What does this fold into?
Amino acid sequence: MSTLQKGGPSGNTPELPEHAWTLSVKEVCRVLAADPEQGLSEAEIHSRRKRFGANSLDTGKRQGTLPILWRQFQSVIMLVLAAAATLSFLFSQWIDGIAVLTAMFINVIIGFATELRAVRSMEALEQMDARYAHVIRGGAVREVMAARLVPGDVLVIESGDVVTADVRLTEANRLLIDESALTGESVPVTKQTDAVVPDAPIAERSSMLFKGTAVTEGSGRGVVVATGMQTELGAVAGMVQETEEESDPLSRRLNGLAARLVRVIVIAAVVAAAAGVLAGRELFVMIETVVALIVAAVPEGLPIVATLALARGMQRMARRNALIRRLSAVQTLGSTNVIFTDKTGTLTENSMTVTRLLLPGAEVSVTGTGLELTGTFLVEGEPISALENPVAASALRVAALCNNARLPGTEQSSMGDPLEVALVVAAAKAGLSRRDAARKWPEVRELAFDPDLQMMATVHQDGSAYWIAVKGAPRAVLNVCSRVKEKGRLRDFGDEEKEEWLARNSSLAGDGLRVLALAEKSAERSEDDVYTDLVFLGLAGMVDPPREEVRDAIAVCHRAGLRVVMVTGDQRETALAVGRALGVSDDESSVFEGDRILEPSQMSHAQKRQIREGSIFVRVSPEQKLNLVALHQEAGSIVAMTGDGVNDAPALGKADIGIAMGKRGEQVAEDAADMILQDDRFATITTAVEYGRIIFKNIRNFVIYLISGNIAEILAVGLASMVGAPMPLLPLQILYLNAVNDIFPALALGVGKGSHLVMQEPPRDPGEPVLARRHWLALGGWGILIAAAVLAGFAFALTRLGYTEREAVTVSFVAISLARLWHVFNMRDAQTHVVINQITRNGFVWIALGICIVLILLALYVPVLRDVLKLATPEGLMWPLILGTSALPLLFGQLALILAGRFIRRNIS
It folds into this structure.
């Protein structure tokens, strides 16, 4: 902290220490009236929150209402409408000018309401990603929202946490902190509890933890000395005067598409106007027509509807427990073709139970499931007292103490890795409480699990000497054991016997069990090397059943062209058993050890191809995960990667879609991820991919719908001008059609639930534009079809039925409006049913059609509006002609879709 704000007197609430890193632990606690054992009382917390405010930064991210309103005027469409209104008033066309201003007002109101709702929806979703912290309050460790922390709170820090306030450390156990977010230094720094000099720069304040930094290793406790904008991170945030958010790729593509369309449309409209002038029409009428055509053709609703579609999709994903943290991730999901997934907790229940103990001289079965603390230890079907067996007693002591888990009823709360919880539960079943064991053999040192060594150790006081407990991967532990304990006696442990134990390990793993080896030794000093000359105690086999819905979810992925690859730290046999059960792979040749995954630059083309074809990777380190992502990205794949720990953060950041676990995941992993699974279920990933595909398809559908209808209007007016025929649509009518047809149906298409068939299609090419060549051909065909039908009805009304020009224009006006409404049903997938499909099931479509039909009828039967638009009241054969011509594009469109669907099904079969 630089200089912390000191408020005025407020009861007994203390002032904040200005240089907390220079004070001793005792002094900091005294200044802040903090109790490291009991924490703060509720009354004191309320008083301090009232004085110091919420523990949050003034990010300025929330967009104000007025800027959103002003943004509606900063578009091409507004400039065009303003020009049209100006021209109308200059030529004394007051009614036309007022009508154009009305059109401007309608566009502004609809655009403002839509964008405001979308922006507020996304801001609400961001609030769901709230930080939590563990603090001591009332003598107990509690989980509270980080925003509710106050100075004087005692924060409990563990590996994987993101520090949520500035903290003066009171305890530090092998604590390493990544402060790169604050200092730019990429190497984690070691923290300790001693005071440092006042002029120490931030990077050297080793007694402090700072808000926004990440705990990469170890654990500790500390007193909160600053919150919110008073933290060092708050000082940085306060210096940021103005930030410019980068728009997501989809928005940039849509804006680029709109810009290109404007250029093409302006040229086409000018050509149509020139043809009209040459045919003898009034200059002002053709200028009005040009402006109206440009207004009608510019898809000004694209960014608004796209934003709403994305926001709506994010809300639906959140309701299905997939929290999207970055807007661009929504569209990337639709292109994902490879999913790297953890095994434990994602594919399995993450509810482990020790069911087997293989000990030297005995094979023990353990009954009971989950967190049940009652169970029986059986040898050849006969119950035994596990603690009376010297080897079993030693193995269970290691299980209980080489551990950081807590159990309900014995600690403040149930916390810890499920594997460690299972070990503590097994010890408790034998009558060995972790809490009692920790009192008898107090821990003096812990060596956290090392992914490279694949082991963890704790050192405990044992009278005047020390006792070391070790657990880890069977091969790793066996390699550092020189003796074995059997029937209470120690003997040498040779290589041949170790191979026999490795075979037993493979047998357990082949049954789908997670296997850990347990070992111990005595030492004279706590600093002795813990991973040498160990005494082997046996193997613990744990069952973690696969989730019931995962096999079906993986089958859906395979049908959708997504490869599912299991990446686990577990051993080969266990992973293959689970992979076979879930349908990931039953081919043993597709299983690779992590040490085969090198940096892409160090691998040959043949090695790369072999690794890319792998379906199960075992004993994978964080660095190897990173290499695996890079290998597939090098081949052009769009990669999703799951992770839950601080060591997974690099791979999550590297992946195109980083997916963090919301229930068991660490905050560092969540920060690196694009999506958080709030239920940790693999099936949620499948759902998110489906929604990602649906959202992009919805956006593509409403773009095709908008542009094809606009092309129809341009063609109808342009062709009539070129042949010297009367105008089938007048400028104000085009503006009215634009308001009726472009907004409501497009919004309805943008927020539809989509078709289930999206998960039977291959992933979309990420480089594919919003509109590929086939889509341009399709929308051109739709435009020609609608224009031809309308012009045919217009010509028939003039030449065969003898209608006046005003009556004939009324026919074409209503016909093109209804044709565009019915055209929404042509946006269904070709393989879906004609009557029951994603369009007809979309309730918003029917609401939109109802609104539009009412607006059309108002234009025909409200005298003032009818006169302004220069329309006639339909009589006689006008309605049959209107309905007939407007239905032609729908009939031909559905026929084309039926033929296309048959062609697709024939090719698939």
